[in-house]
Amino acid sequence: xxxxxxxxxxxxxxxxxxxxxxxxxxxxxxxxxxxxxxxxxxxxxxxxxxxxxxxxxxxxxxxxxxxxxxxxxxxxxxxxxxxxxxxxxxxxxxxxxxxxxxxxxxxxxxxxxxxxxxxxxxxxxxxxxxxxxxxxxxxxxxxxxxxxxxxxxxxxxxxxxxxxxxxxxxxxxxxxxxxxxxxxxxxxxxxxxxxxxxxxxxxxxxxxxxxxxxxxxxxxxxxxxxxxxxxxxxxxxxxxxxxxxxxxxxxxxxxxxxxxxxxxxxxxxxxxxxxxxxxxxxxxxxxxxxxxxxxxxxxxxxxxxxxxxxxxxxxxxxxxxxxxxxxxxxxxxxxxxxxxxxxxxxxxxxxxxxxxxxxxxxxxxxxxxxxxxxxxxxxxxxxxxxxxxxxxx
Length: 393
What we know:
Layout: H1 17-33, H2 47-60, H3 68-85, H4 91-107, H5 110-131, H6 138-220, H7 225-250, H8 272-280, E1 285-291, H9 299-319, E2 324-331, E3 335-342, H10 357-369, E4 373-378, E5 384-391
Parallel strand pairs: 1-2
Antiparallel strand pairs: 2-3, 3-5, 4-5
Helix pairs in contact: 1-2, 1-4, 2-3, 3-4, 3-5, 4-6, 5-6, 6-7, 6-9, 9-10
C-alpha cells in the first residue's frame, strides 16, 4: 500500500514574471477603455470605478495558470459590474476576461470552457440590456459580448487540440522507437529458424545418402571392385554437393563485408530431376510426375516445396523398407499440391520417433510459413505419404 503521508503536497503554479507583464499590459489598455462613450454622448459614470474594476481583473490574471476557473469568475464579475454601471463594453474592457477564457479552454476540457463562456455571455448581455448605456444599439448589446467571448474560447480549444495531437504523434514516435529493436530481434530469430531448417534438411539428406553409399561400397568391394569404385565416385559427388549447399546456406550468416561474393542459386522445383537422381544412387527409385499447367511460384514457396520433397524422400530412405517412391506435382488455378508417397507393406527400417519426428514438424512449419498446409500419414494400402498444398500467388 502507498503511504499518502509521505506524498509531497500538490502546489499550485506560482505567478511568473511574464504573467505580471501581461497583466500590466492589459491594465494599460483598460484605462482608455473605461473612458470610451458612444459617439455624440458623454460618459455618464465616473472613470475611477472602471479603473478599479480593470485593475482587479488584471490582478486576477496572475493566477490564470493555476486557478483558471476562479480567474474567469473574478474577471467575469468585474466585467458584469462594469456593464451594470453603464460602461460601454469594448474589447479593451473585456480583455482580461478574454485572456482568462483562453487559458481556461487551453487547460480544461471543451465542456467546461463552453459552460463558462455561455455563462459569461448571458451575464454580460443581461447586464447590458438592463443597465447598459441607453443609446447603445440592441445589436451591439447582443452581438458584441457574444463575439468577443467566443473568440478566445475557440482559439484556446484549438490550441489544446493541437497540443494533444502533437503529444499523440510524439508518443507514437517514442513507441515505434521502443518497438523497433524488438521487431528487429524477432526478424533475426525467424531468419535463424529458417536457416536452421535449411541446415537440417541439407545435412540429413546428404548424410543419409552418403551413409547408404558408403555401406554399398563396403558390401561390393570384396566381390565387385568395379561397382564399388563407381559407388565411391558417386559418394564423392554426394559429399561435394553437400558441401556446396552447406556453403550456400551458411553464407547467409556472413558479414556485410562479404556481400560481393556471389551466392549459389536457391534450389527449387526445377532441380527435382537432380534430386531424384541423387536418391537413385542410394538405391531409391524416384518417379516425378506433373499434372496441370505449371504456374509461377514465389521464391519462398519454390524453396519450401523443394525442401519438403527432399525431407520426405530422406525419411523414405531412412525408415521405409521399399526402394521406390513417387513425387507428384498437381497444379490448379491457385494452388500447388505436392505429394510424396511410397507404397509397400514392409515395415520401416527404423521406426520414426513419436509424433512423426522433427522432420515432419519441420516440413509442417515450412508449409505454414509459406501460407500452405501439410498432411503426413500412412496409406490404407500400406506405405506413407506427405501431401503439401501451397498457394501459387
